[in-house]
């Protein structure tokens, strides 16, 4: 029985799924938008939004928790300095999933674009 087991397995082992979400999270934080399947986008949303909520707290403990997931100091710095500040005062809804009209060519998987709802403002010095 599947009592209280949430989330999709995506035909991967637990370690493979964790690595997949880490890589996709890094890509989303770097580029602001990624193109993937609908199922992966819906699952990734439940990983990225708590990270942005952590970044809004902006204390040492939240930085360490973010580093524990991302594993890269530059990504943590980007998350806390560029990605999270536009979301100050917003309670959730940091990502948007837009379904694409055409499926993937090889296996006809439904595709979607996962993007951050607010763009980070980069200042030029």
Question: Which characteristics define this entry?
Answer:
125 residues; Large ribosomal subunit protein bL17; 13% strand; 3 strands; 50s Ribosomal Protein L17, Chain: A; globular; Ribosomal_bL17_sf; alpha+beta; 48% helix
What features would you describe in this structure?
It holds the Pfam family Ribosomal_L17. Belongs to the bacterial ribosomal protein bL17 family. One of its GO terms (cellular component) is cytosolic large ribosomal subunit. The chain is of the alpha+beta class. The chain has a single domain, classed as Ribosomal protein L17 (50s Ribosomal Protein L17, Chain: A, Alpha-Beta Complex). Helices cover 48% and strands 13% of the residues. It has helices spanning 14-31, 38-57, 60-70, 73-83; strands at residues 33-37, 95-99, 111-116. Strands 1-3-2 form a 3-stranded antiparallel beta sheet. Helix 2 (38-57) packs antiparallel against helix 3 (60-70) and helix 3 packs across helix 4 (73-83). The longest helix has 20 residues, at 38-57.
Secondary structure topology:
Elements: H1 14-31, E1 33-37, H2 38-57, H3 60-70, H4 73-83, E2 95-99, E3 111-116
Antiparallel strand pairs: 1-3, 2-3
Helix pairs in contact: 2-3, 3-4
GO molecular function: structural constituent of ribosome
Family: Belongs to the bacterial ribosomal protein bL17 family.
Organism: Desulfovibrio litoralis DSM 11393
């Amino acid at each position: 029985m599947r009592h209280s087991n949430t989330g999709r397995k995506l035909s991967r082992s637990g370690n493979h799924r964790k690595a997949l979400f880490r890589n996709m999270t890094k890509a989303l934080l770097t580029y602001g938008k990624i193109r993937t399947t609908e199922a992966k986008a819906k699952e990734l949303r439940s990983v990225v939004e708590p990270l942005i909520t952590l970044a809004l707290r902006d204390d040492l403990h939240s930085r360490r928790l973010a580093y524990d997931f991302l594993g890269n100091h530059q990504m943590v710095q980007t998350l806390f300095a560029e990605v999270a500040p536009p979301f100050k005062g917003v309670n959730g809804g940091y990502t948007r999933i837009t379904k694409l009209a055409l499926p993937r060519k090889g296996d006809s998987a439904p595709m979607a674009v996962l993007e951050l709802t607010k763009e980070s403002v980069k200042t030029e010095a």
